[in-house]
User: Which sequence fits this backbone?
């Protein structure tokens, strides 16, 4: 293998406010997105995150303020 094109990770993480982080990563290069912090409910919330991310990437118009990663950074 000459290079790694994609990476994936798995963790059992619970954000302090109980909501998952879904959206573009703050302080990262453009086009880097995440969906994490499902508190063990990834089978259910992963489908929702996929829908949210696809609309965000393709249409750039999703009302998802409460799920944004940057909500904890006050950006």
Assistant:
């Amino acid at each position: 293998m000459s290079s790694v094109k994609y990476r994936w990770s798995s963790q059992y993480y619970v954000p302090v406010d109980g909501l998952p982080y879904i959206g573009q990563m703050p302080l990262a290069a453009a086009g880097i997105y995440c969906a994490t912090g499902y508190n063990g409910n990834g089978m259910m919330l992963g489908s929702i995150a996929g829908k949210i991310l696809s609309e965000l990437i393709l249409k750039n118009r999703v009302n998802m303020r409460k799920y944004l990663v940057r909500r904890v950074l006050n950006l």
In short: The chain has one helix and two strands.
